[in-house]
Amino acid sequence: MDISKLIDAFLCGEDLDELIKVSSTLLQCPLLILDDAFHVVAYYKPEDFHDVPFDATINSKKISYEVVRNLNWQPKMERPVFLTIEESPWRRRVSTLKSEHKMIGYLFCIDVNGSLETISDDDMHKIETILAKQFLTQIENQFLSTNTEEEILTHLLDGNYQNSTLFRMQISNTWIEEMDNTHLAMIDLSNNANLQMPYRSLENKLETELADTHPFLYQKNILLFLHDKRQAELLEKIARDFQVAIVVSNAIKDIYQLAETYQQMNEVMSLLKTKGFSAKVHYIEEYRLSMMLNQLKDRFDLVPDAYKKIYEYDKENHTVYCKTLYYYELKNHSVIETAQELYAHRNTIVYRLRKIKDMFNIEEAHESEKFIRLISLGLCLIRMNEDDIFVDCLHTSEIFENESNGFE
């Protein structure tokens, strides 16, 4: 493929609209460029080309939740994927646009001739690189004049603001100024449990019943801001009805720290996926201890040998001595409370504690040793995928009713 025309157009300073037109002619297919929030940046199609999903995307200036869900990729995918979309006879070739190793958007190629797989990776990479460079130039030229709230939040989550002063200037007279002390909610769109999931209905429901939460797409998630208990309870119903996992943050004290909050929410979502899908609302506060211990799980070398021996014995013999000793310490050596936590008879707990003492020479911990024992046993349980015991199940009312910002 001779891409000299595209290179010449780029060197002559042509804008992105012209470059995507030249690229479309070279590839002999309609093209669509989206930013990393899935908004339409540029597109080109022949006048006689008609495709329901493509035309709908152009008209709404954003990709639908349904398409994002069907993509089912990691946001920073390394290889292009071919995607089949309902209501369209043509596959899409989807790839990321990167500049200086940073992902800035997506390129959708509509494979109308069924020939895109025959084009060399090298030629496609050159086209993607040129489009990405021009797109980045456009972003840089428009950055200071960006005035849509979704674009500002996308820049914030991408880490594009070097200081809070520029960010504060950008959000002046926007609804973002009012988002301090709200809760960020993340709806994960990657669940494969129900391929017929009505994501268009989800989009409509959010836009009608939760419009004041300002839902928007970022990477493969829907993000929105919760102000009160009513909105959170509606999200719980949405989680059940649409079979999606939803994570809700603690109250945001400073909207400029949103990227840090988003990272914590991603950690919780990753934990949920390792434990199996759960269609409900999960609060970060419930997973605080579990996340802390997960940060330490790679330092199992620091766990004293005595607890490592119990861990190895539990693994080989399917016993629960680690869990028993953990709760015994947590409940201040109360056999009755330990039995209640483990749904066991008190005599069973007494028997296990005697076995632990006899087999591993473990005595009751002094106050100075208790913290190390709890952390060590916690790491053992994390490695055995028993981290559910560190989750504090909270109700919506516990999150919202006692906050000092005026929530109900």
Concise overview:
With 408 residues, the chain is of the alpha+beta class.
What are the key terms here?
single chain, Beta-Lactamase, five-stranded antiparallel sheet, alpha+beta, Alpha-Beta Plaits, about 400 residues, elongated, 17 helices, about 15% strand, five-stranded mixed sheet
Overall geometry comes to elongated
Question: What is the CATH superfamily classification of the largest domain?
Answer: GAF domain
Task: Look up the CATH topology of the largest domain.
Answer: Beta-Lactamase
Radius of gyration: 26 Å
- Compressed to H and E, one letter per element, the order equals HHEEHHEEEHHHEHEEHEHEHHHHHHH
Describe the structure.
The protein is α+β, with helices and mostly antiparallel strands and 408 residues long. The chain folds into 3 domains: 4-144, Beta-Lactamase (2-Layer Sandwich), CATH 3.30.450; 178-279, 2-Layer Sandwich (Alpha-Beta Plaits); 294-390. The protein is 48% helix and 13% strand. The chain has 17 helices and 10 strands. It has helices at residues 4-11, 16-27, 52-60, 65-71, 121-142, 149-158, 164-170, 199-209, 229-242, 258-275, 288-296, 305-317, 321-330, 335-342, 346-360, 367-383, 396-400; strands at residues 31-35, 40-44, 81-83, 92-99, 102-110, 183-188, 216-218, 221-226, 246-251, 281-283. It has a 5-stranded antiparallel β-sheet. It has a 5-stranded mixed β-sheet with strand order 7-8-6-9-10, with helices on both faces. Strand 1 (31-35) and strand 2 (40-44) form a beta hairpin. The chain starts with a helix and ends in an 8-residue tail after the last helix. The relative contact order is 0.08. Mean pLDDT is 85; it is low at 404-408.
